[in-house]
Design goal:
alpha/beta; Rossmann fold; Arc Repressor Mutant, subunit A; 3-stranded antiparallel β-sheet; 16 helices; binds adenosine-5'-triphosphate; binds magnesium ion
């Protein structure tokens, strides 16, 4: 079986390193504090949290704020999450505080629950009741963890929702919240700005890429034997192309693996794999490129050519700067101490198109 996996949460043999980060997450959650975990997209936030949860053996429910359309929708998702973890019969007596009783229906097989509220209900009441249940189901020896993924969306859902949430959360005890986010600038606004309701609400942690040596060993151990003497150079070519990005490294390694294993390609296998991935995304890249304005295209091309833009050396003009901000916000560009294109395959495509 192909030992590389990308696009979903990775566990067990598909997961590497993060030893220090794992300890840090567990330590922080082993307190009354909340955790704020930030990284660019697909660096491994969900996988890391998942691993910590499994190791700690604590019940957890996750809500992706991207899927929340209203305050009431958020309350319904919370309740659904609770009912998945705790059988309804066992917690019905904890729901006597509900001022508005939601309609709870189970599917015939009993494998999923639907929660709906009466249309005319007051949002605040519905939210407070649902949030109060979290504190009631959590027990001292099995403390609940509530993960709010893509939390930066909180400001988009409804006006004042962030304030409402914070007002309730700050009085809650006995369980932890984990706030995940992939838009660093917005997460910083939310948790570092004095005027923001969530100012310093949790302990902040940022997730970097996986260290080069760890990822190298991980790839090396999993390359098929057919790679033979080429193995080391194949591995370093993969890591050079992806710049050790967790997701893209696993994606490229997976295609390389299949090419060696099933098609006995060994010569220039990394180039071939890259070309095949770029080709398979041609249409998406073309659409994406067409959707960008001229300045953004210019900036992307510039970044593609020099790969990294050292912000301390090149002081960008204000137009370039606002374009970089915009591209970073959309996730096409990653900003660390330099700016770089997030997707190495898109970078390759841009270079080829503009050769
Ligand atoms: N510790 C790890 N070891 C190996 N590969 C990893 C690791 N963490 C992440 N990856 C790779 O990165 C991919 C994305 O991981 P994950 O979904 O956990 O990231 P994320 O930061 O939650 O992403 P998103 O921003 O899309 O929510 C995984 O499918 C896997 O290929
Ligand atoms: Mg995730």
């Amino acid at each position: 079986m192909n030992p590389f996996k990308f696009g979903t949460i990775v566990e067990n043999d598909f997961f590497t390193d993060r030893v220090r980060e794992l300890e840090e997450v567990k330590q922080k959650l082993n307190s009354e504090n909340h955790l704020v975990l930030i990284s660019p997209r697909r660096f491994g936030k969900s996988s890391l949290i998942q691993k910590a949860l499994v190791q700690m053996g604590r019940p957890a429910l996750t809500i992706d704020m991207m899927n929340v359309l209203s305050v009431e929708g958020f309350a319904a998702m919370l309740l659904k999450g609770v009912f998945k973890l705790y059988p309804l019969e066992k917690i019905r007596h904890l729901m006597t505080h509900f001022r508005v009783v939601p309609t709870i229906s189970t599917t015939p097989m009993g494998d999923s629950v639907e929660v709906t509220f009466n249309a005319s209900m007051n949002d605040t009441v519905v939210l407070e009741d649902a949030m109060a249940l979290l504190e009631k189901v959590s027990t001292p020896d099995k403390r609940l963890i509530v993960v709010l993924d893509e939390f930066q969306e909180v400001t988009e859902i409804s006006k004042g929702f962030d304030r409402q949430l914070r007002a309730i959360m700050q009085r809650q005890k006995g369980f932890n919240y984990v706030f995940l986010g992939s838009q660093e600038s917005m997460m910083t606004e939310i948790f570092e700005k004095k005027k923001s309701p969530f100012y310093h609400f949790g302990q902040r942690m940022t997730l970097a890429k996986i260290p080069y040596e760890d990822f190298r060993d991980f790839l090396s151990e999993r390359m098929p034997v057919e790679a033979g003497q080429e193995k080391d150079s194949i591995v370093s070519e993969i890591l050079e192309f992806t710049d050790v990005h967790p997701y893209y490294t696993q994606q490229l390694a997976s295609v390389v693996y299949d090419m060696i294993r099933y098609h006995s390609v060994c010569q220039h296998v990394v180039d071939e794999a890259v070309a095949s991935i770029v080709r398979s995304h041609d249409l998406d890249f073309e659409r994406l490129w067409a959707s960008m304005n001229r300045t953004d295209r210019y900036v992307m091309l510039d970044l593609a050519r020099e790969n990294k833009r050292d912000t301390s050396r090149h002081v960008p003009t204000s137009t370039v700067y606002s374009s970089l901000q915009r591209l970073a916000k959309k996730g096409y560009v990653i900003k660390s101490d330099t700016y770089e294109i997030e997707d190495p395959f898109f970078r390759k495509w841009i270079l080829e198109e503009n050769a």
